[in-house]
Amino acid sequence: MSTLIGALVGVGSTLLGESVRSRRDRGHQLHQLRRQLYARYLEALTNTDSELQLLAIRQPTPVDEADLRGVWRSHSLLALNYEITLVAPTPVATTADTAYRALRGMRNVIGTAEVNVSNPGVSEGNDPGSAEWQGVHRAYVDALAALRSAMRADVGNSQGW
Q1: Cβ contacts of residue 137 below 8 Å, gap of 6+?
Q2: How far are the Cα atoms of 56, 124, 127, 157 from residue 143, in angstroms, in the given order?
Q3: Sign of dihedral through CA atoms 49, 52, 54, 60?
Q4: CA angle 150, 109, 88 (to 5 degrees)
Q5: Contact at 8 Å (CB) between 119 and 57?
Q6: Closest by Cα among 17, 72, 18, 67 to 48
Q7: pLDDT tens digits, residue range 112-131?
Q8: Residues near 75 by beta carbon (within 8 Å), at least 6 away in sequence
Q9: CA-CA distance, 35 to 148, in Å (whole number)?
Q10: What does the pLDDT profile of the chain (161 residues) look like in tens digits?
């Protein structure tokens, strides 16, 4: 009887250990997935922002719709936004969508209004661009800052930082 109980305890402890190890590994994999996805999404947002501004500086606004669509689709923003919605906690997914919508608002203004985008060679205090540009760009910059903060909190909490 004691041998049977010893065997059951041994098997039970082995199964419990494997379960804990497996759960820890899945948590680590999810953390790595989020870090990589967050970096890709921030990169796509930033590159799209830069390319939209470059279009608006090089061409008279409103910018041609085909050019805007080309820039917008070149970094797979919508697909990355959907991925974040699937794997990130709600605070990150919400702020990611807010940043996406703010950038889309910027794109829409560049494509529908005559705006003066600030000159990247001049400090923003000297040539801030038109008031309409300042409004949409500030909304995007603020949304991006909130997104980075939410992502940092999520990744930091996963690491125990």
Answers
A1: 106, 117, 118, 129
A2: 21, 19, 22, 21
A3: negative
A4: 20
A5: yes
A6: 72
A7: 988 888 655 444 444 556 88
A8: 43, 44, 45, 47, 48
A9: 11
A10: 888 787 777 777 777 777 777 677 677 788 899 999 999 999 999 999 999 999 999 988 899 999 999 999 999 999 999 999 999 999 999 999 999 999 999 999 999 988 888 655 444 444 556 888 889 999 999 999 999 999 999 998 654 43
* Rounded (10°) angle between helices 2-58 and 77-87: 150
d(CA 60, CA 103): 19
Tracing tokens 């899945």 back to the chain, one arrives at 26
What is the reported pTM?
0.76
Under 8 Å between Cβ of 119 and 56: no
CA distance 73 to 29: 29
> In this structure, are residues 119 and 111 in contact, taking their beta carbons and an 8 Å threshold?
no
Task: Give the integer Cα–Cα distance in Å for 78 and 96.
Answer: 11
